[in-house]
Design a protein that fits this description.
alpha+beta, 268 residues, three-stranded antiparallel beta sheet, single chain, seven-stranded antiparallel beta sheet
């Protein structure tokens, strides 16, 4: 009976963790370039149950079968499938079709700079012609993105007083001259990407980037989140019902345990 309480409890904890992940997805349903997360289930290792104080076999207790001790969230994964495009007609807005990430020269509150990656192409051009994110970080060009070197020379820049266009390969044209190229890189294995904020990714040890190959840049558009709100809401209802089932199981186990203590224990 106590094992039943523990099994129900671990199931409820798992559903709570799944709900947290799903709530984060829904909160970022309108965040440009956001990639939804999901969870997998993993069962605890099955254990052999033994008879207590069994003297049937000399020095060896008899086994009564394997027991399952509940389950847990195995891992949280990210779905990197492409989201749909939303046309904004803003020249500085860029969307990546296919594989790859924009490389950003990110600066934290302590003033430390590092390269981060994102699918969010909601850039603006400042008075000096630099492409910047909503937080003020600079967009790296192809040289800076592939080398990982952060310097002013590797920031994407245009003449702010002149019109410009961005072709599908990310080259920026002004007066029929290619003045720069947006840095789009691909990762050797997305398992080496770690979430950093809402829509930034950090490359952990073992990961490496290469020059993007299978991509096209769409100017004047943004990639929306790949979260399907209807699917997430349906899954949320399923999680809620599973959580309620766990709570009812704990209540039933508690009533059974109470009966065992009050009735069976009172037999003389």
């Amino acid at each position: 009976m106590v094992k039943g309480l523990y099994t129900a409890y671990t199931g409820m904890v798992e559903e709570q963790r799944r709900l947290d992940v799903m709530s984060n997805n829904l909160a970022n349903a309108t965040t440009a370039g956001y990639k939804k997360e999901g969870t997998t289930n993993a069962a605890f290792r099955r254990q052999l149950a033994l008879r207590i104080r069994d003297s049937g076999n000399f020095m060896f207790a008899r086994g009564i079968g394997d027991i399952q001790q509940g389950d847990k969230v195995g891992e949280t994964y990210t779905d990197y499938s492409q989201g749909s495009f939303k046309v904004t007609d803003e020249k500085s807005n860029l969307a990546i079709g296919g594989d790859g990430f924009f490389a950003i020269a990110y600066t934290d509150k302590q003033g430390n700079s590092s390269v981060k990656y994102t699918r969010d192409g909601e850039f603006t051009v400042d008075s000096q012609g630099y492409f910047r994110t909503g937080n003020g970080d600079y967009l790296l060009d192809m040289n800076g993105a592939t080398s990982g070197q952060i310097s002013e020379a590797n920031f994407v820049r245009v003449d702010p007083l002149q019109s410009y266009t961005v072709d599908p390969e990310g080259r920026i044209w002004q007066n029929n001259t290619a003045v720069d190229q947006v840095g789009v890189v691909d990762v050797n294995d997305t398992d080496y990407l770690a979430h950093y904020g809402e829509n930034l990714y950090d490359l952990v040890n073992g990961g490496s980037v290469t020059r993007g190959a299978n991509y096209q840049i769409e100017q004047g558009a943004l990639e929306t989140s790949n979260v399907n709100v209807v699917d997430e809401m349906v899954s949320m209802i399923t999680i809620q019902r599973a959580y309620e089932a766990g709570a009812k199981m704990i209540q039933a186990e508690d009533e059974t345990l109470e009966s065992a203590v009050s009735q069976v224990g009172s037999v003389s």
